[in-house]
Amino acid sequence: MLIKKPDDIRSSEITAQSVYLDRRRFIAQLGLAGAAAGIGLQQVVTPPEACAEQQIPNLTKSPLSTSEKVTPMTDVTHYNNYYEFSTDKEGPAELAKNFRTQPWSVTIDGAVAKKQKWDIDSILKFAPSEERIYRHRCVEGWSIVVPWVGFSLSELIKRAEPLGKAKYLEFTTILDPRQMPGQDRNVLQWPYVEGLRMDEAMHPLALLCFGMYGQTLPNQDGAPLRIVVPWKYGFKSAKAIVRIKFTEKQPINTWNLSAPNEYGFYSNVNPNVDHPRWSQKTERRLGEFFKRKTLMFNGYDQVANLYAGMDLKKNF
Ligand SMILES: Nc1nc2c(c(=O)[nH]1)N[C@H]1C(S)=C(S)[C@@H](COP(=O)(O)O)O[C@H]1N2
Ligand SMILES: [Mo]
């Protein structure tokens, strides 16, 4: 079967994950043995593709960070949703290894004062790089805590000079089936598209992201540029963005197009609104055994006022 809906993936792959983690621990123990024998731990546990990432200098720490325990980097980089490469969680790490992220530019168009194309390097200079440790919850019921690197998306939006009629932002991922084997399959409609309402996108928590764990983003996590919207389900956080269009009408996001009764436009994390095929009341942190309660807005209560007066059961 080609189309893997989250419930096909859920229990089976979460099991696979715990097996995988056990394997990592086993390798780590080998590493300790290696250290005793004079071989550095890093040498033993660092996967070869990690070499491609570069350290990001002058990081400032963000007051928006959670103090919760950060998920180990190897888990975050080897348990991915990135259907352009694979529908398997372990697939993107390997299949995205040679993905080209240079040169890279982002087209800014739609309802803006001036349509333009920005080179990635110029975008990274818009504001100082911050480390933001966020909870991140997938609609499938797993979650992670990641030290992302980036700055507020609002820094880009103000430079784009949106017109008064711009009410939404539409984010488009690169379309390049020669590099992205998943785009030859009809699991989703390509390219991947996501959207935010202007006030959501302007909220300081909405992150324009180009790194994690102090380094540039690994390809499988959305290099060279993605968004991270921590109070929404993970699929709202589009990877490898090449276009940001300012629109008057609400964009049609890819997962909504694929299954409108299951994935809405807003997709705020909400334990009180079940997915039609499973409960959203609890989640499992990667690397942990016991499930924990899922919090409204993923615990980011400061966004609640964006939805004042809205029925979040209808606008799921
Ligand atoms: N372009 C693109 N962006 C995407 C996806 C995808 O398949 N393609 N998957 C989404 C989903 S379902 C999740 S949970 C997060 C996972 O991000 P991570 O792999 O960095 O943890 O990316 C989101 N962004
Ligand atoms: Mo997800």
List keywords for this structure.
316 residues; alpha+beta; Sulfite Oxidase, Chain A, domain 2; 2 domains; 8-stranded mixed sheet; 5-stranded mixed sheet; 8 helices; 21% strand; globular; binds the ligand Nc1nc2c(c(=O)[nH]1)N[C@H]1C(S)=C(S)[C@@H](COP(=O)(O)O)O[C@H]1N2; binds molybdenum atom
Q: How is the biggest beta sheet arranged?
A: 8 strands, mixed
Return the domain count: 2
Roughly how many Å is the radius of gyration? 19 Å
Low-confidence stretches at least 5 residues in length (pLDDT < 50)?
Answer: 7-44, 46-50
CATH fold title of the largest domain: Sulfite Oxidase, Chain A, domain 2
Q: Give the beta-strand count.
A: 13
User: CATH homologous superfamily of the largest domain?
Assistant: Oxidoreductase, molybdopterin-binding domain
Pattern of helices and strands? HHEHHEEHEEHEEHEEEEHEE
Overall mean pLDDT stands at 89
Strand content: 15-25%
Helix content: 10-25%
- Bound molecule types: the ligand Nc1nc2c(c(=O)[nH]1)N[C@H]1C(S)=C(S)[C@@H](COP(=O)(O)O)O[C@H]1N2, molybdenum atom
Shape: globular
Task: Walk me through what this model shows.
The protein has 316 residues and is an alpha+beta fold. It is built from eight helices and 13 strands. The protein has helices spanning 6-36, 41-45, 73-76, 91-95, 120-124, 154-160, 198-202, 254-258, and strands at residues 60-61, 105-110, 116-119, 130-137, 142-152, 168-173, 193-197, 207-212, 215-216, 226-228, 241-247, 282-285, 292-293. A hairpin with a 5-residue loop joins strand 2 (105-110) and strand 3 (116-119). It is globular, with a radius of gyration of 19 Å. The two termini are 28 Å apart. Residues 7-44 and 46-50 have low confidence and may be disordered. The protein binds the ligand Nc1nc2c(c(=O)[nH]1)N[C@H]1C(S)=C(S)[C@@H](COP(=O)(O)O)O[C@H]1N2 and molybdenum atom. Molybdenum atom is lined by residues 81, 138-140, 234-235.
